[in-house]
């Protein structure tokens, strides 16, 4: 949301919209294409890309309508409360999403490993030890685990610093200093982009030098699923902040009413907190 109008006399309810059904249709095409792609059908990649591009267009138009409604004065404080609750529940759903992956990691390490190494399984894998990253001999190609230095530690510093720059930007917006707001917001986006560059390099290093792949047993699958989905969320958060920066440069937001900025900031801080958990659990333990 941008500049809200507390004096709007009603709770704005938009008219019938084509965007929800179009979003569902494009997502259906996207997932059908992805399913066909992984199963070796030639039309899969094309359908996946067409569906994804269509979904992005729908999001652009849909959010554009919401921004236009906000800037035209149709939103009031009641709408602001609705947006805050909606964003809060969305972030809660993301917390549960990552909780599922952290739970899978915990189960694999605390339950499955000791079970595979107990007396009942010594006949199957006599040399297997219950140490995270070990796999029974002959089951998959040998690989090396990913340590916390140097890239993961650098990325941790980058994300923590981005949280600081975003907070500075937010305080500048509340003080009415738009140029300062834009500068520190751009710095936050840049730090996120550098983070993703380092993660791409880390993945290249994992595949080429460590032979660590998505198929490297439970260690490889949990490593890439957790860090990969987090990287996707960093990318999504950077896009959200870039849209906020564009709107800021267009003159949207006021010191008192700027939930569009705050919602994106909440998401970015959530991504920061998730990374701290990943950094400790995935790279150190």
Description:
- The chain is mainly alpha-helical and 285 residues long.
- It folds into two domains: 75 residues, Orthogonal Bundle (Helix Hairpins); 205 residues, Four Helix Bundle (Hemerythrin (Met), subunit A) (Up-down Bundle).
- It has seven helices and no strands.
- Helix 1 runs antiparallel to helix 2.
- The longest helix has 40 residues.
- The model has no long low-confidence stretch (mean pLDDT 91).
Protein structure class = mainly alpha
**Distance between the amino and carboxyl termini:** 41 Å
Helix percentage:
over 70%
Named CATH architecture of the largest domain: Up-down Bundle
Helix tally?
A: 7
Provide tags for this entry.
7 helices; 285 residues; Helix Hairpins; Four Helix Bundle (Hemerythrin (Met), subunit A)
